[in-house]
C-alpha cells in the first residue's frame, strides 16, 4: 500500500518543504504500509494518505504465493476487468516473484515507477488464508514461528477496516498468465494539521526509544501516526523538519494570542513535553503535557488551551519567580549531539532510554517536575524562554517579601530589584539590615526551613552571617536566584537586545 503524507503551513512563515518515502506502522495490526511524505506550505499542515488500487497477501515466508486480496472499486485495477481476488502474482516488471517474500513483492511494486507490468495466474479456488480474518492462524509452515501472524495485508481498505473477502471463488481470469499494465494511482487522502501537534521517538507511556521511527500526534481528532524509515539518519532528518514547522506554527499562534493580551499577560513560550512520572504501583511512566510560560505563571496542561476559558484549566500553575529551571545533562546546539548518536547507530535499540534531552522544573517544598523533549533545539528553546520569562516577571513585580523568623522574632525579608536584600521587623517595619545583590557571597541551608546568608560588609570588609527561617525555604531560594539572574541580565546589552516580547527594559 502506498500513502502520501503532506505537511503544509502558513505561507507567511519561512517553513521547510520536503518529500520522501516512509512506512506507516499500525500498532494494532502490526502491519506497515508504504507512505509518500510531502512537507509543503499552505494554510494548514495535512498528512495525505493515498492507497494502492489493490491489496496483497501471502508470500514465500508462509509457503504460499503472494495473491491479490482486495481490488478497490472504480480504480484502475477494477476498471480493467482483468484482475481478480485470488490471482497469484508471478512477475513484476518481468522479475519472477513466485518465490519472493511478501515484503520483497511489495517493495518491487512500490519502487516500480508510475507504470507497472504484472503477470498473474488465476487460482481456481480462493486460497484458504484469504477467507480468514487478519491475525488468524494460517497454514502451518516452517516460517510460522517467526511472525505473529502468517497473514499480512499490504493494503488499507477505503472503508477503514482490515476485513478480507469471504465470498465464493472468483470467476476465471481472462488474463491468466498474461502480463498487463496498470498505472499506480493514489486512492484516498487524510489531512492532518500540524498546529498544536507533537512528535515523539518514544513508545507511548514509556521511556523506550523506537527504532528509526517516530510518532506524529495531532490535536484534531486525537489521532496518532507512526512513521518508520530505513535509516536513523533519515528518521532524524524528518523528525527535525516536522518539529521545526510545528514550532514555527506555535510561534505564529503565540503572536496571535499576544495581540489580545496585556503586556503583563504575554505568552513567552509554549509547547509539548513528556513528563516522567514515578508511581509506587506502576513504576516509571511517561505522559505528554502541554507547557506554557505566560505572564507571571508557568502552567502545565493536559491538552493545549484553545479558548480563553481553557487557560484557566491548567493542571498545575506556579509563580515564575519561585521556580528554577535545570537542565539534566549537557547538550549540543543545532542537534549535533543527537545527529552524531543517530549516525553512529546508537539509537537503534528499542529498549534504550535517553535522558540527555531533559530538564526539571524545581518548585516549592522541594517538589519538581521532570520533562523530556525530542531535540536539542527544543531544550535550548525552553531554557532561553525561561530566562526571558523570569526576567520579564522580576522586572514587572520589582520587589517581593516573605515572612520569616530569627531568634524568635518575626521578620520580613525583602528582595528589591533596585536596592537588593533587606530585613525589617514585621510590625514596626523598622529596618534591621540591607545589602546589595553584589554583597551576597554565599549561602547554606539545612534543606528544610533554615538558611544562612553570607554578606560582605562594605565598611569592615568582613563577612556578616544572617540566619533566617522560612515556612517554604525552597520558594525563597528560587526567588533569590530569579532576582539575581534578572539583575545580571539587565546589565548585559546582548541579552536585552534578544528580548522580543513587549516592554521596555532599563538597567538599574
UniProtKB/TrEMBL annotation:
Gene Ontology cellular component annotations, sorted alphabetically: cytoskeleton; dystrophin-associated glycoprotein complex
GO MF term list: structural molecule activity
InterPro entries associated with the record: PDZ (IPR001478), PDZ_sf (IPR036034), Syntrophin (IPR015482), Syntrophin_4th (IPR055108)
Annotated signal sequence range: 1-19
Domain called PDZ: residue spans: 66-124
Chief location of this protein within or outside the cell: cytoplasm
Assigned keywords, A-Z: Cytoplasm, Cytoskeleton, Signal
Compartments, record wording: Cytoplasm, Cytoskeleton
The family this protein is said to belong to: Belongs to the syntrophin family.
The protein's name: Syntrophin, gamma 2
Record lineage: Eukaryota, Metazoa, Chordata, Craniata, Vertebrata
Amino acid at each position: 500500500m502506498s500513502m502520501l503524507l503532506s505537511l503544509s503551513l502558513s505561507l507567511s512563515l519561512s517553513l521547510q518543504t520536503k518529500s520522501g518515502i516512509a512506512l506507516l506502522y499500525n500498532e494494532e495490526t502490526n502491519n506497515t504500509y508504504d507512505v509518500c511524505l510531502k512537507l509543503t506550505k499552505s494554510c494548514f499542515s495535512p498528512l495525505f494518505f493515498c492507497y494502492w488500487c489493490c491489496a496483497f497477501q501471502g508470500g514465500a515466508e508462509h509457503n504460499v504465493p503472494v495473491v491479490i486480496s482486495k481490488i478497490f472499486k472504480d480504480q484502475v485495477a477494477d476498471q480493467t476487468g482483468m484482475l481478480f481476488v485470488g490471482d497469484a502474482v508471478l512477475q513484476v516488471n518481468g522479475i519472477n516473484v513466485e518465490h519472493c517474500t511478501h515484503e520483497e513483492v511489495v517493495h518491487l511494486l512500490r519502487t516500480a515507477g508510475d507504470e507497472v507490468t504484472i503477470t498473474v495466474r488465476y487460482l481456481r479456488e480462493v486460497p484458504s488464508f484469504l477467507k480468514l480474518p487478519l491475525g488468524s492462524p494460517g497454514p502451518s509452515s516452517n516460517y510460522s514461528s517467526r511472525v505473529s501472524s502468517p497473514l499480512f495485508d499490504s493494503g488499507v481498505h477505503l472503508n477503514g477496516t482490515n476485513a478480507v473477502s469471504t465470498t465464493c471463488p472468483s470467476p476465471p481470469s481472462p488474463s491468466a498468465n498474461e502480463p498487463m499494465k496498470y498505472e499506480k494511482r493514489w486512492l484516498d487522502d487524510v489531512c492532518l494539521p500540524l498546529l498544536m501537534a507533537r512528535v515523539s521517538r518514544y513508545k507511548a507511556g514509556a521511556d523506550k526509544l523506537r527504532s528509526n521511527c517516530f510518532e506524529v500526534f495531532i490535536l484534531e481528532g486525537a489521532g496518532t501516526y507512526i512513521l518508520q524509515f530505513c535509516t536513523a539518519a533519515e528518521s532524524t532528518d524528518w523528525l527535525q523538519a516536522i518539529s521545526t514547522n510545528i514550532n514555527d506554527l506555535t510561534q505564529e499562534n503565540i503572536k496571535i494570542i499576544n495581540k489580545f493580551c496585556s503586556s503583563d499577560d504575554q505568552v513567552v513560550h509554549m509547547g509539548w513535553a513528556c513528563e516522567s512520572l514515578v508511581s509506587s504501583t506502576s513504576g516509571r511512566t511517561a505522559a505528554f503535557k502541554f507547557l506554557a510560560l505566560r505572564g507571571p505563571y508557568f502552567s502545565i496542561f493536559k491538552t493545549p488551551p484553545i479558548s480563553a476559558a481553557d487557560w484557566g484549566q491548567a493542571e498545575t500553575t506556579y509563580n515564575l519567580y519561585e521556580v528554577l529551571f535545570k537542565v539534566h545533562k549537557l547538550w549540543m546546539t543545532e542537534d549535533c549531539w543527537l545527529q552524531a548518536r543517530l549516525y553512529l547507530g546508537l539509537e537503534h535499540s528499542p529498549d534504550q532510554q535517553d535522558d540527555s534531552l531533559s530538564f526539571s522544573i524545581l518548585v516549592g517544598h522541594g517538589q519538581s517536575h521532570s520533562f523530556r523533549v525530542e531535540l536539542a533545539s527544543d531544550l535550548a528553546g525552553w531554557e532561553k524562554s525561561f530566562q526571558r520569562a523570569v526576567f520579564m516577571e522580576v522586572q514587572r513585580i520589582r520587589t517581593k517579601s516573605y515572612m520569616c523568623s530569627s531568634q524568635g522574632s518575626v521578620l520580613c525579608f525583602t528582595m528589591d530589584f533596585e536596592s537588593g536584600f533587606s530585613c525589617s521587623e514585621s510590625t514596626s517595619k523598622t529596618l534591621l539590615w540591607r545589602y546589595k545583590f553584589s554583597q551576597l557571597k554565599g549561602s547554606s541551608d539545612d534543606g528544610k526551613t533554615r538558611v544562612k546568608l553570607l554578606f560582605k560588609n562594605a565598611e569592615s570588609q568582613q563577612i556578616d552571617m544572617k540566619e533566617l527561617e522560612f515556612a517554604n525555604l525552597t520558594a525563597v531560594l528560587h526567588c533569590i536566584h530569579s532576582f539575581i539572574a534578572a539583575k545580571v541580565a539587565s546589565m548585559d546589552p546582548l541579552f536585552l537586545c534578544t528580548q522580543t516580547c513587549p516592554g521596555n527594559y532599563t538597567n538599574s
